[in-house]
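hey can u check if this looks right to u? its 360 residues, i copy pasted from the old doc so theres a chance i mangled smth
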Amino acid sequence: MRVLFLTKYDRLGASSRYRTFQYLPFVKESGIDFDVKPLFNEEYLVYKYKYGRENKFLTLERLFKRIKTVLIDSWKYDLLVIEKELIPYFPPVFEYYLKLIGKPYIVDYDDAVWHNYDNHRKKIIRLILKNKIKTVMKLASVVIGGSEYIIEYAENAESKRIEKIPTVIDLRKYNCADEKKEEKFVIGWIGSPSTSKYILRINEPLARFTKRYNAVVHLVGFDKRLKSKLLFDGKIIEWNEHTEVDEICKFDVGIMPLEDGPFERGKCGFKLIQYMGCKKPVIASPVGENNIIVKHGFNGYLAENSEDWFNYLEIFYHSCEIRQKFGKNGFEVVKNFYSLDVTKDSYLSVLLDILKEVKI
């Protein structure tokens, strides 16, 4: 049996790396033959992160390659696993094509991508594509979602089968030394250029806190073009897959601010899971999946306003004991619910179930 994984990115894209690539060794061990064909490759992402925009020629090249893959190569496989959608900002004609030729597919989401369409500023996009993702979900053999918000949308789309599999980490890669060597209290954030804007929402409490206390803010993967908008002296650190855990280990507390918008409600709270995997206490905005991951007063705090952010930072600053206690509690949450060892069997069973149906 052969499976084709149609990811959005290659390993450089965090969503594809954690939603697909980290499961592939287990897929191989199960005896499934597979190929992976990303929509956008590393060259595309490097350009986008560097210049803050797409390379139009490269984008078109990758889109045409994806179309060729669907129309020609998909015949060679028994099952397709699609990340989000086949072609962004295009009607679901290729998903209908797979249905027409009897090719089953699984679709996986870690973001509320339908809001790219139903909340788009252009009326024509809203008109043509507002129900696209519902169609993609309804045509799928299985919808996998990483958050409750996504699961609810899939239910409204009348999907045949829905599975919640959160975005998880391999705990074997998340080991910190017992003692942190930084002299200052480190408030840490990890993300990408596209999520850097959320830090600006807590500009004022971070500026006030770092001015009053011996503290510094580490921003891993932050968009350097936004540095001039920071009201505090943040240390911007370039993201690297091989050093991200080492950087998180330097944190005293991990933060995840968000705005309470439709798209944000679909997020899977992954950076919180990364922090907790390193036994760090967390502070997050009470939006979407954050409300499930963060047990307020147990492994972290949910901050509703600037005063909350400042006060909760103050609690962690003054008490190493509370930091350690919350960190250990958070680690147990990850170990029991958000680790690769917990979800790998569920992921494999979804694939194997559909492949059995194909064989029959």
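The mean pLDDT is 95.
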